[in-house]
């Protein structure tokens, strides 16, 4: 029996994998896409409903826009992906670059794989200073009619052909979306990993969701689940040089913090966990939790009204105001009520503490995160609830 001499191939998802969901890029993208729908002449409620529907049905909202509204995909990319202030949201991660540098290139090729168009993918890789660490790029070619995207089987088959892979058992793949990971696993890809920052929030199909809330992520069906890409050193040791188990971490916070990463690394585990119990963090968490519970009750009331029945304007106003606070909190905007103004700073502080624990070999679980409520992005309808509203469903992430 002949032994295959084909090298291994590592496929790395880009968005929300090579950078954290905490950057708020998915929320900023959700806003851009929503505005694009509204610019087509739809009202706010219609835009939100169609955004979620197309995303759920077609994998990308853009595919629905092409099919039903004859939009120019290049124009969409320019006004959505191309308009994102990526340089203000992400920056190079020395730890991640070191991880990719430690891959044994005599054994494996490394490809980036994304549902975005090529300009966005190349821009992200360049900003992260990783463009020289990938051997190729798999992307959705918006100029091709009926282009495929994850989790379509055709997308994965096309990726294999482009990377010249014939032995799928030698494929290594990591993605932040479990549906995409399961699709690769079903096609026989040998080593698949779900990157899951459980407890953080991001936007899918224009709707804010808590990561990991839709299904149990416990490594079933042969899928490994990780919260930090550094864990790939443990899962894929056969592809990496004998690099140190810990590498120098550099972190520059955007907000003023009472301690630096180096100072946090000098604390013992018990002290770090005590900091997590800071009353200010607990107050923020409780405030947002109560706001989310109120929002749920208000939306349940609206959902219980009959189609075309008028909704109390005061309830509509309350929903919109609550949503503004929660969504702006996700985007870490400065113009917020005092009750949530510290969200960006606290989220960043928790990230520093989690990195300090990781330096000690401890992967902090989602219970260390400050959870945000999960409201839909779009405001409630102004006067009536439209008939045939879209059911909430799992979407397909970039």
From TrEMBL:
GO terms for molecular function: nucleotidase activity. Pfam families: Hydrolase. InterPro entries: HAD-like_sf (IPR036412), HAD-SF_hydro_IA (IPR006439), HAD_sf (IPR023214), Pyr-5-nucltdase (IPR010237), SSM1_domain (IPR052791). Residues 374-398 are annotated as: Disordered. GO terms for biological process: nucleotide catabolic process; pyrimidine nucleobase metabolic process. Gene3D superfamilies: 1.10.150.450, HAD superfamily/HAD-like. Transmembrane segments: none annotated. This is Pyrimidine 5-nucleotidase. It comes from Mycena sanguinolenta. The lineage of its organism: Eukaryota, Fungi, Dikarya, Basidiomycota, Agaricomycotina.
């Amino acid at each position: 029996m002949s032994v295959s001499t084909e090298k291994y191939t590592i496929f790395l998802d880009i968005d929300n994998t090579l950078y954290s969901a905490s950057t708020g890029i998915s929320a900023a993208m959700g806003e851009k896409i929503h505005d694009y729908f509204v610019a087509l002449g739809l009202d706010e409620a219609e835009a939100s409903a169609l955004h979620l529907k197309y995303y759920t049905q077609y994998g990308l909202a853009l595919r629905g826009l092409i099919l039903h509204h004859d939009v120019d995909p290049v124009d969409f990319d320019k006004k959505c992906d191309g308009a994102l202030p990526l340089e203000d949201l992400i920056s190079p991660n020395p730890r991640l670059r070191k991880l990719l540098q430690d891959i044994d290139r005599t054994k494996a090729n490394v490809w980036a794989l994304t549902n975005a168009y090529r300009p966005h993918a190349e821009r992200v890789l360049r900003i992260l200073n990783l463009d020289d660490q990938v051997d190729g790029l798999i992307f959705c070619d918006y100029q091709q009619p009926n282009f495929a995207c994850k989790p379509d089987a055709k997308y994965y088959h096309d990726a294999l052909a482009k990377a010249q892979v014939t032995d799928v058992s030698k494929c290594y793949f990591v993605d932040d979306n479990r549906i995409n990971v399961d699709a690769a696993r079903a096609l026989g890809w040998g080593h698949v990993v779900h990157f899951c920052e459980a407890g953080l929030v991001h936007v899918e199909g224009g709707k804010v969701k808590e990561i990991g809330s839709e299904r149990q992520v416990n490594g079933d069906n042969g899928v490994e689940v990780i919260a930090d890409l550094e864990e790939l050193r443990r899962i894929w040791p056969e592809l990496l040089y004998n690099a140190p188990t810990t590498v120098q971490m550099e972190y520059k916070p955007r907000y003023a913090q009472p301690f630096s990463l180096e100072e946090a690394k000098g604390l013992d585990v018990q002290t770090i966990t005590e900091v997590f119990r800071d009353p200010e963090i607990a107050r923020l968490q409780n405030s947002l939790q109560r706001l989310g519970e109120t929002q749920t009750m208000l939306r349940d009331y609206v959902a219980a009204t009959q189609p075309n029945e008028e909704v109390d304007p005061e309830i509509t106003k309350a929903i919109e105001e609550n949503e503004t606070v929660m969504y702006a909190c996700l985007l870490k905007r400065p113009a917020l009520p005092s009750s949530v103004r510290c969200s960006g700073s606290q989220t960043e502080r928790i990230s520093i503490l989690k990195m300090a624990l990781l330096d000690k070999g401890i992967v902090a679980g989602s219970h260390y995160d400050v959870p945000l409520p999960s409201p839909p992005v779009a405001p409630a309808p102004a006067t009536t609830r439209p008939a045939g509203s879209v059911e909430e469903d799992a979407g397909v992430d970039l």
